[in-house]
Amino acid sequence: TKDWNGIDQVVLRNPKGASARISLHGGQVCSWRNDQGEELLFTSSKAIFKPAKAMRGGIPICFPQFGNCGTPEQHGFVKNKIWTIDENPPLYMADLDGASSFVDLLYRSSEEDLKCWPYSFELRLRVSLRYDGDLILRSRVRNINGKPFAFSFAYHTHLVVSDISEVRIEGLETLDFLDNLCHKERFTEQGDAITFESEVDRVYLNTPNAIAILDHERKRTYVIRKEGLPDVVVWNPWEKKSKAMVDFGDEEYKQMVCVNGAALERPIMLKPGEEWRGKMKLTVVPSSFSLDL
Ligand code: TA6
Q: What is this enzyme's EC (predicted)?
């Protein structure tokens, strides 16, 4: 199908009616719906659907860096580029772990990219929708350059919640985090679940491979399971920051939370020919289930 600018989108469906949509613009997952057709990924009602800028929502792929590292683009440039369908994905990705449908996307660095980041790479993304409705993103970065390079990576995951003040995040207790609201100063999280009463913008370090986001009102829990992504970014802009963003509604912060699987604190170094793999699996369960995190 075509998305907002006639740019191709791939729709994945499973036999129970769950679905996902991925845009070739940025390799961005724009939608993930459960088998009742409920949208689980947040998209701002004021999102700007104009190429060379990622729409505000879904799961932008942040590479080769996350945050403002002095390059022209915040969160890297691949989220603003047109990707292609990968006709011959690497054999090792044959492991489908219960996928009912999937798509392989590819972004190869261009001559133009070299001007803002002087390294050649191949970035592959497989998005799978499982029979049970789970969404899996697998990324693979290969250094096809003559010299080593280091990068950071994040799945900028915008989740829908019914009311941010009723959301708890479990799995990050007692961990250290860098607080983007205090010049990235390092703090230690207290001993119980994270809750939200104001803007939060933190990078939790050396996190466990499973994190739970409990949406109390809707009796729904998201579980994020990840590999190769040691850090977790937790972001809610709250009211003041929301008003300052042109592509974000004033009140929408109440219905979303960003919980990003990421590799940020220690950039990943790849020698020529080497590759890195990162994986994130999103699951949504009725909160009544006990979570063996
Ligand atoms: O997710 C954390 C964060 O880095 C915040 O600091 C905020 O900048 C957010 O990403 C939005 O970034 P974007 O480039 O999508 O406006």
A: 5.1.3.15
| Ligand 1 contact via 42 beta carbon (within 6 Å) | no
Determine, yes or no, domain membership for 4. no
CATH of the domain at 100: 2.70.98.10
Tell me, yes or no, whether 100 lies in a domain.
Answer: yes
pTM to 2 decimals? 0.95
**DSSP secondary structure string for all residues of 189-215:** --SS-B--SS-EEEEE-S--SEEEEEE
The reply to whether ligand 1 has any atom less than 6 angstroms from the CB of 158 is: no
Binding site membership of 264 for ligand 1 (Cβ less than 6 Å): no
Residues of the domain holding 281 = 9-286
pLDDT tens digits for 240-250? Answer: 999 999 999 99
Q: Is residue 291 part of a domain?
A: no
- Residue 26: HSE in the Cβ half-sphere, 13 Å Cα cutoff: 28
ipTM of the complex: 0.92
